[in-house]
Amino acid sequence: MKPYIAPSVLSADFANLERDVLMLNQSEADYIHVDIMDGVFVPNISFGIPVTEAIARHATKPLDVHLMIVNPEKYIEAFQKAGAAIISVHYEACTHLHRTIQQIHAAGCKAGVAINPHTPVQLLEDVIEDIDLVCMMSVNPGFGGQKFIENTYKKVKQLKEIITDSGSRALIEIDGGVNGENARPLLDAGADVLVAGNYVFKSADPIYTIAELKRV
């Protein structure tokens, strides 16, 4: 099966965001990945609800919204109204994770749980059957263009085993440092969705680069 590709607009040209979203519409991308950062949970600020809404107005691909924020439960309905199809919250940011997953589903979105590089995948065992996606960070969250963490392959294999044993249908999404070299090994380990930011938007031909990732 071909991987799902989710280009991250964190690496887009913010002064020409409509142009870059229209480009993604014409590509073989499956989702548009939208990274929301608050400067508290992660040491960077990206954009919020109004920009997500603006992206959604032009996008023909589902928005895969990744909340790297504290108290994400306060903003689930707002991001759903802004156009999110998938909402991922961080395990590390949710005191009542199961309740937040239920809240995302009640809002009509698919629910994802993101985990930082240091977070063991085994901590997801009690919710794996309730979620649609695990967003596994393969860099430390907060900034684009970071170097891929090699231990990710091991974690993907461990998570795939948990998903298979539980009968969960959750997809494994890899976020951070994905490129043409590590894409195939990640898929072989069990990944389903590849988030690519700099690798897509800094390439000479982003549409071609996305197509190559689909066929890796």
Automatic annotation (TrEMBL):
Binding residue positions for substrate: 8, 66, 142-145, 175-177
Molecular functions (GO terms): D-ribulose-phosphate 3-epimerase activity
EC number(s) given by UniProt: 5.1.3.1
Highest taxon above the source species: Bacteria
Active site, renumbered: 35 (proton acceptor), 175 (proton donor)
Pathway(s) served: Carbohydrate degradation
Keywords: Carbohydrate metabolism, Isomerase, Metal-binding
Broad EC category: isomerase
Names of the cofactor(s): Co(2+); a divalent metal cation; Fe(2+); Mn(2+)
Entry note: cofactor: Binds 1 divalent metal cation per subunit.
CDD domains in the cross-refs: RPE
Family to which this protein belongs: Belongs to the ribulose-phosphate 3-epimerase family.
Function field: Catalyzes the reversible epimerization of D-ribulose 5-phosphate to D-xylulose 5-phosphate.
Identification of the protein by name: Ribulose-phosphate 3-epimerase
Source organism phylogeny: Bacteria, Pseudomonadati, Bacteroidota, Cytophagia, Cytophagales
